[in-house]
Amino acid sequence: MRKNEKLINRLYMFLDLFLIVICYSGSYYLRFFVLQKYSMFQLGENERYYPFFVYIKYLWAMIPAFLVSFSICGVYKQRARSSRQKEMFLLFTGGMLSILIYIAYLFWTKEIDISRGFLGIFFSTNFLAETVYREIISGVLGHFRRKGLNQKHILMIGYSYTAEGYIDRIMTNPEWGYHIYGILDDTMVLGTRYKKVSVVGTTAELQTFLDKNDFDEIAITLSIDEYSKLKHLVGICEKSGVHTKLIPDYHEIIPTIPVMEDMDGLPVINIRNVPLSNLFNRFLKRCMDVLGAVICLMIAAIPMLIVAIIIKATSPGPIIFSQIRVGLHNKEFKMYKFRSMEVQSEGKEKSAWTTKHDPRVTKIGRIIRQTSIDELPQLFNVLIGNMSLIGPRPERPFFVEKFKEEVPRYMIKHQVRPGMTGWAQVNGYRGDTSIRKRIDCDLYYIENWTIGLDMKILFLTIFKGFINKNAY
User: Fold this and answer.
1) 281-312 as b/e, with b when 16 or more CB fall inside 10 Å?
2) What is the pLDDT of residues 174-192, one digit of tens each?
3) Which residues contact 436 (CB under 8 A, 6 or more apart)?
4) Is pLDDT above 50 for 80?
5) Does the pLDDT at position 255 exceed 70?
6) Least confident of 156-170, 172-186, 386-400, 437-451
C-alpha cells in the first residue's frame, strides 16, 4: 500500500462510499426517531416526513455528489505528506460542495420536502466519521513507521542543497516511513554527515551498493553541475530494478508539480504550471466570480451607499477613485475604489506609496482602508471581467516596472486575473509588507489553484481578511 498511492486512494474512496450510506441512513434515524422525542425538534401537527424508502431513492444522487466534490477539492490528492488541518479543511469544503450539489438536484426535480435538519445532521455526522477514520488510519501507519516498521529504505546519490532539503523533510516527518541508508558522492569526504546521514561512498561504487543491499528506492540528488553523470547513473539503477527518483537541483525554476508534454516522443516540461490556463477551469472560476460579485453587491449595497454619502459630505472630490493597475497578460485597466485620500496630482499618485500616518488619508479614509471597505467598488471590476474575486492583487505600472527588475518571478502573477483578495492577503501580506513573500504566496496560488482553495481564501477573508493593520 505504501508503494501505490493510487491503491490507497481507491481504498479511501471505497470507505467514503460505505460511510456515506451508513451516515445517510443513520441521519434519518437520528432526525425522525431520536431527536423527534425532544420538543424543540418535533414536527408540527400538520407536518409529516417521508418514509425511509423515499430518502433512499435520493441517495443515488448524494453518492456521486460527494465523490465528485471530494475529487474537485483535492481530497484524494492529499496523503501522508499533508497536514491534518489541510485534510480536514478539504473534507469540510468537499462536504459543503456536495450538499450544495445535492440541494441543486432536489431543486431541479422540484423536491422541496427533504428535511433541512436531516441534511445538517448528515453533513455533520459524515464529516466527523470521515475525519475520525482518516485520523485512525494515519495514526496507525505513523505509529508503525516511527517504530521502524513498514519503512522505505533509500540510497541517495549526490550531496547538494537539494539533498539537504530532502533530508530535512524526511527527518522532520518520521511518519512518512523513509529511512536513508547514506549518500554516494564524488565531491565530499567519506564520512561527511548531515543530520545523521553520512557520505558512504562514491558514485563509482553504486553497483556494489545495489548488489549488497536491498533498497526500496534510489533518490538522485546530484547538484546541477554534475548532471553529466545522470544518464549513466540512471542506467545502473534501472538495470538493478530499483525504483528511482530524481529530486532536481533546479526546483526553484520548475513548479512543485510540473506539467509534462509529449512532443512526438520528446518530453517537454512546462516551467510554470497554471491550472487556470485550462479553458474549463477559467469558465468555472468566471462563473464563480460573477455569481459571487452579484451576491456581494446585493449584500453590500446599503453599506456602500452610506459610505458614499459620508465621503461626499466630509471631503471635496469624487466618491469613486479610479487608478490604473496592471492585470491579466500585463494589460492595464482602471481599478475602482472608494476615495480614501485627498485629491492629489496624477504624477504624485502614480509613484507614491502610502505610509503610516500618511497626511493625505482622510479621517473616513483611514477607517475604510483598515476595514477594506474601500475595496468594495472592485466588485464592478469583477463583473466587467478585468478582476476576479480571488487572485494576486494588481499593482500600479510604476511599481510593476520597479519590482520586475528587483523581485524574481514577479511577472508570473500576471498570468491570471488579479483579485480583490488572495492567498497573500489572508496570510497577512498586505499593504506595506514584504513584496517577495507576497510573490511567493501568489505563485503558490497560481500553481495550486482549485475551487477548494478559492473557497478557503474566501472563508479566511470573511473571518480575518477585512481588518488590515498594514493598510495606512
Assistant:
1) eeeebeebbeebbeeebeeeeeebeebeebbe
2) 767 788 899 999 988 898 8
3) 407
4) no
5) no
6) 172-186
Is 300's pLDDT higher than 80? Answer: yes
What pLDDT is attached to residue 386?
92
User: Do the beta carbons of residue 152 and residue 184 sit within 8 Å?
Assistant: no
DSSP string, 234-272: HHHHHHHT-EEEE--TTTTTS-SSPEEEEETTEEEEESS
Record the cell numbers describing residue 329, joined without a space: 497578460
Pairwise CA distance, residues 9 & 1, whole Å: 10
Considering Cα of 153, then 157, then 160, then 162, what sign does the dihedral take?
negative
C-alpha cell at 87: 485534510
pLDDT at 429 over 60: yes
The owner of cell 505504501 is: 2
How far apart (Å, rounded) are the C-alpha atoms in residues 451 and 112? 28
Task: Tell the residue number behind the cell numbers 497626511, with chain if given.
Answer: 359
334 bridge partner residues: 324
For residues 440 and 358, which has the higher predicted lDDT (pLDDT)?
A: 440
Count of residues for the chain?
472
Cβ neighbours of residue 88 closer than 8 Å, sequence gap 6 or more = 131
- Angstrom distance (rounded) from CA 26 to CA 10: 24
Q: Is 165 exposed, middle or buried (0-12, 13-18, 19+ CB in 10 A)?
A: middle
Q: Is the entire prediction scored with pTM above 0.70?
A: no
Q: What distance in Å separates the CA atoms of residue 63 and residue 126, rounded to the nearest whole number?
A: 12
The answer to whether residues 23 and 126 touch, using CB atoms and an 8 Å cutoff, is: yes
User: What cell does 353 get?
Assistant: 506609496
Among residues 31, 242, 258, the alpha carbon closest in space to that of 122 is found at 31
Helix, coil or strand: residue 301: helix
- DSSP letter for 83, please: -
